[in-house]
Write a structure and sequence with these properties.
The chain is mainly β. The protein has helices at 57-60, 132-136; strands spanning 10-13, 19-28, 33-41, 83-87, 93-102, 108-117. It is built from two helices and six strands, in the order E-E-E-H-E-E-E-H. Strand 1 and strand 2 (19-28) form a beta hairpin. Bound molecules: FE2/S2 (inorganic) cluster (FES).
């Protein structure tokens, strides 16, 4: 890879599992900001290693096939640079920066420079937050 090559940022929903992000990632854990090319980020709400997936979704009974449909309009991303994931206290996973969002079939459903992903597992609008974390009593 050359120094000038642009690394596109992407995230897809694993079936019944985490949000898998790749690219120029900054992950805010609360204690530090990690820079890494790949991350598995909990969507089910049960991980003991939030914001990362700990594999707990396999035994928690949580299910989401990750079959979100593409937005009616998908803009071409012109921004470059990192995407920063920030878990908001007891709330969603905020993503700031250029990002292509894909469903479990790796079909692009949206492009964004800022969005909020569900990380409590209760949203009816997965992979995005719909505010269900409050009623679900999500702590994390
Ligand atoms: S998605 Fe894997 S532990 Fe939550």
């Amino acid at each position: 890879m050359s120094e000038t090559e642009i690394i596109p940022n992407a995230a897809f929903t694993a079936p019944n599992g985490p949000l898998i992000a790749t690219g120029d990632l900054k992950i805010e854990t609360g204690a530090e900001t990690l820079s890494q090319p790949r991350a598995s980020l909990c969507r089910c709400g049960a991980s003991a290693k939030k914001p990362f997936c700990a594999g707990t979704h396999r035994t928690s009974g949580w299910a989401d096939a990750g079959e979100a449909v593409p937005a009616s309009t998908i803009a071409e991303l012109t921004e470059t640079g990192p995407v920063t994931f920030t878990p908001l206290p007891n709330g969603p996973l905020l993503a700031k920066g250029p990002l292509t969002v894909q469903n479990a079939a790796k079909i692009t459903i949206a492009t964004t420079t800022q969005t909020a992903f569900c990380r409590c597992g209760a949203s009816a609008n997965k992979p995005y937050c719909d505010g269900a974390h409050a009623a679900a009593g999500f702590i994390g």
